[in-house]
Design goal:
- Keywords: Membrane, Transmembrane, Transmembrane helix.
- It comes from Gemmobacter megaterium.
- This is Flp pilus assembly protein TadG.
- This protein is α/β, with parallel strands linked by helices.
- The chain folds into three domains: about 110 residues, no CATH class; about 260 residues, von Willebrand factor, type A domain (Rossmann fold, 3-Layer(aba) Sandwich); about 100 residues, no CATH class.
- It contains 14 helices and 21 strands.
- The chain has a six-stranded mixed β-sheet, sandwiched between helices. Strands 1-2-3-21 form a four-stranded antiparallel β-sheet, covered by helices on one side.
- Helix 4 links the parallel strand 4 and strand 5.
- Helix 4 runs parallel beside helix 14, helix 7 packs parallel to helix 12 and helix 10 packs across helix 11.
- The chain is elongated.
- The termini are far apart.
């Protein structure tokens, strides 16, 4: 034992302690215990944040939808023209009751002659709970809702077939459908914005004396009031009142008579029921009216007779809605024929507040149109009638001094028939009837074919048909009950239909138990999607469908 020495504890080497620390760090780095907990915490935080954002967006969308729904309902109520309160006040009340007053930023009201437009501007502001952590303090949406009620000025023309084939049940069903249509249309019109015109047509259109007198019509008479329209009138929309046109001669161009080469009075007098333009005051055109009593009464009293000239019906229908006829309608209003409310109609085609409608209806197809040629419509004829009822005619082109043909004597004379069995030029002068008959008087008393045969063909030779064609024109050919060569008439209506549709006029076509040719004609004329091929009682359904397409109130945005 060594005295006086201190015993020192053993010391760990410095190098060995550092290596231990490094060893522990390495073990910590390699140890994966607790790593999933960290990842799960991160994912949970992300999910909570995304969920919070979704809640913010759901709150925002719910508030925006509620504001939009309130705005839509408010402007619809405010735009109603029956609404007597100020539109802006109506909108404000809707937002107040929905507790959304702060969302309404403005109301714009536009009133016109026959419309009201209301526009509500809104702003939806929602303060988010979670998105504020991203610096988003509010969610904002600006929107607008617009509603409009437009009391459109409407001009309706019913172009209705009243030809002979419409007799019986078909005419009754047409009347029922048209009366219902007119009644419902006018009962809904509380602002006098709708005018209805009626154009009944058969082989011609009876315009009546009031319309006739406002056109430049030649050869006038007061038996019936149809006008022979020139072919050129179908190539333009307007029918100027200054255009020279002949009144349709009151003549029987259709019925045949005895074509014997000897004297005969068989079938000499006209068959008035087959005159192209019959005397009938109820079948006349009615111009721009909203008098329900007058319109329905006229429809109820329509009579079916005669042939079918769809082109003429449409031509007059277009005339009544063409703005070129405004001076005509104003003149009729001045005369008390048209209500003063409609004195400025027809409106312009491009007037956005106007709806022009033509309802074109037929049960048939074109029948060749017939009319007396212009030279034989008016003025003095070369025909004489003595008090005994016998006729004679002057043919100045015949050689010699005897230029008067006396058909019942089958002889030529120097003077018209005077009732004598024989006379010289000198002895009969005092008693002879020296005043020729006006052509209008001739046609009231004699058929065209009888005149052609007895007064022309027997006197001058030739064929009956050639002399008939000399006196009258037929636009096409007739072969029994059909088919008919009427391409000229078909072309005219097709041309006019195209011109009308280019002006955005709504043409509704109704083929009522019509043959194929008639169906195709109306289908081609009608506006797209506005053709109705109907049978029986379906004609009422067609008129109801047409009425339903005239809408007033709509949500425009």
């Amino acid at each position: 034992m060594v005295q006086g020495s201190l015993i020192q504890p053993p010391r760990r080497a410095i190098g060995s302690g550092r290596s231990c620390l490094l060893s522990r760090a390495a073990r910590f780095r390699r140890d994966e215990d607790g790593s999933m907990l960290f990842f799960s915490m991160v994912v949970l935080l992300i999910m909570l944040f995304v969920g919070g954002m979704a809640i913010d967006m759901m709150r925002y969308e719910a508030e925006r939808s509620r504001t939009q729904a309130t705005a839509d309902a408010a402007v619809l109520a405010a735009a109603a023209m029956r609404q007597t309160r100020p539109p802006a006040q109506v909108v404000q009340d809707w937002f107040d009751k929905a507790d959304l007053s702060d969302s309404l930023t403005g109301v714009i009201v536009d009133n016109g002659l026959n419309f009201r437009t209301v526009r509500a501007q809104t702003r939806t502001v929602t303060r988010p709970y979670f998105m504020q952590m991203l610096g988003v303090d509010e969610l904002r949406s600006n929107a607008a809702s617009t509603a409009e009620e437009r009391r459109t000025n409407v001009e309706i023309v019913l172009v209705l077939d009243i030809s002979g084939s419409m007799q019986g049940t078909k005419l009754t069903r047409l009347k029922d459908a048209a009366v219902e249509f007119v009644t419902n249309i006018l009962e809904e019109d509380t602002e006098n914005r709708v005018s209805i015109s009626i154009v009944p047509y058969n082989g011609q259109v009876n315009v009546g004396p009031d319309l006739r007198d406002r056109f430049n019509v030649l050869g006038t008479h007061n038996r019936s009031y149809c006008i022979d329209l020139p072919h050129s009138s179908y190539q333009q929309l307007a029918l100027p009142t200054s255009t020279p046109m002949y009144q349709h001669a009151f003549a029987d161009t259709y019925n045949t008579s005895n074509t014997s080469t000897s004297w005969s009075t068989s079938n000499m007098t006209p068959g008035t029921t087959n005159v192209w333009c019959p005397v009938n005051s109820t079948n006349r055109v009615r111009v721009h009216s909203n008098n329900l009593t007058l319109l329905t009464s006229q429809i109820r009293n329509l009579e079916a007779v005669g042939a079918t000239s769809i082109d003429a019906g449409l031509r007059w229908g277009v005339t009544l809605i063409d703005p070129g006829s405004r001076p005509l309608i104003t003149s009729l209003a001045n005369g008390g024929i048209v209500p003063n409310t409609f004195r400025n109609r027809p409106f312009d085609y491009d007037d956005e507040e106007v709806l022009k409608v033509i309802v074109l209806m037929t049960d048939g197809e074109h029948w060749p149109n017939e009319f007396v040629n212009d030279d034989f419509k008016s003025g003095d004829s070369p025909i004489y009638r003595h008090s005994d009822g016998y006729y004679s005619i002057h043919h100045p082109g015949r050689s010699g001094s005897n230029k008067y043909w006396v058909p019942h004597r089958s002889e030529w004379r120097a003077v018209p028939w005077s009732g004598s069995t024989w006379c010289s030029a000198w002895s009969c002068v005092a008693t002879a009837t020296r005043n020729p008959l006006p052509w209008q008087t001739v046609w009231v008393n004699l058929r065209v074919q009888w005149v052609a045969n007895q007064l022309y063909r027997r006197a001058l030779g030739g064929s009956v048909n050639s002399w008939v064609e000399h006196l009258r024109t037929r636009e096409g050919t007739v072969i029994g009950a059909g088919p008919h060569e009427v391409s000229r008439m078909d072309t005219r209506i097709n041309t006019l239909c195209t011109l009308v549709k280019q002006q955005n006029v709504a043409i509704f076509g109704i083929a009522f138990e019509a043959p194929t040719n008639g169906q195709n004609l109306i289908r081609n004329c009608a506006s797209p999607g506005r053709f109705y091929d109907v049978n029986g009682l379906d004609i009422s359904t067609a008129f109801r469908a047409i009425r339903a397409q005239i809408s007033a109130l709509r949500l425009t945005q």
